[in-house]
Fold:
Amino acid sequence: MLQGADGEARRWAIDHQMRVGRYLGATDFVPVSQAHIMADTESLGAAGVAWLEHLAALPLEQRHVRVPTITDPRGTDFTAAARLKQQDWMLDLEHRAIAAFRAMGILMTDTCINYQTIMPAVRGEHMAYGDTGVVIYCNSVLGGRSNFEGGPSALAAGLTGRTPRYGYHLDAHRRATLLVDIAHTPHDLADWGALGGVVGRLAGDYWQVPVLRGIDRVPGSDEMKHFGAALASYGSVALFHMAGITPEAHHLHDVADPALPSRATVTEQDIQAFQQAYRARVDTVDVVVFAAPQLSLLEMRTLAGLLDGRHATVPLLVVTSPQVKPEAERMGLVARMEAAGALVLSGMCFYNSYAREMAEANQWRTLATNSAKLTNILGGYGYLPALLSMAACVDAACSGTIGSGTPGK
Amino acid sequence: MTEFRANAAMGKCVRGRALVAKDGFSARYDLDRVAGVFSRPEHKLAGRSYVGCILVLDAAKGGVATAWMLHEMQARGIVPAALVLNTVNPIMVQGAALADFTMMSGFAVDITQAVPDGALVEVDPASDPPCLRILSTAA
Structure:
């Protein structure tokens, strides 16, 4: 393959994987059963799209992926691009990138909640997943095995059917390095995200594996989703354990050495303070966003209930997956949200849809969301985000202001 | 001349002024890639241009987008000359590999404390072991 016998695309792919593997200490490869590619065009740029088109123009047998390969959210929902004031050049890049991926046999799932909607990993299954939220959920909640695979590396894995064996493919790296005691188990999704942010800041880098002790009930999938996405975002963490809950940590000693000291105890006050630090900067809101990760069907149901009989006075964006949206339409949830003034989007995410340009075009600066991950990302794009509960976000969308209540309430 | 040995590196040997902070790095989270400056208000380098600099930072942060973004920044020429980190994550390595970008990581010391901001440094991935050299501390 390295000599080009399988064509140019696979020659590039295996060379890329060997360079990455050498840097990170891999001594061989591991076969993967799926790949998942993050490749919005804000990240790719014109140069990245042209690079993909070059691969896509190769003969069919050279360019097609060898294992099922799916995609992360794209940079637009074409049906709503005009309302978002996205520009033609953005949509052109998106069309070109999509055409290139299709030519390579990639399934355009356009989702970051594939573990809830497409095909969850099985414990011990090796994957090449992009999107940090997908990786951390797969590793931690499902017991699958993946490193963070950026778009190029996930594509390489799709083309070769393997990935360098380092990091979280190896038992040795899956042991806990950081013990955190939890004195308060969150209830609201924003609180779960805030807890992820607090632990992420404690962890600090990719190679740290937090184990949480003291969570007093089994969290639901959406709670794990928001916790993991925030932990990955704030800490660059790819794997966590919850003692007595997650599959590799039936007992604390399954993943942690007895001598591992407790780094910190996280209290309800810590979780509130985390949110208050953002909230204190925001009074009125220009836009309210539910995204990052895309909403599950159950989140859509909850949000529709909160919006019944209400009407948004500022733009209210609800982002879900192409798999969930038709179900939500069939069940009348989308119609209920739209009746309240929401714009329901699918197949995109907010932050990877030219967030800076959307802010400028729509004069958005202050933003309310229940996603800690989104809160973490958007500062660099010029937004002032506030992290609130779903109910408080709905209130903010209807009033245009943020109340003075307790954070997360 | 002071020299710091690294555990791993890739790319070409480059020289440039060091832009140093005990903070993380993510192209998506931290940069205005059009203007070529750090844009995240909480970042210790907020408002400073990174174009042509040797970035010396603590740890790779954030999501997977940097794997594409280094390539995109390289294509437009609004890009650092190299990235030097105490701790990498796979995304930075993958991005550097795609873009043929110079990167180095893993030192016996905290490299953000060892290299003065503004120093003229050389990042030499090809030496054995890879090393960063401080050529001059005068800005």
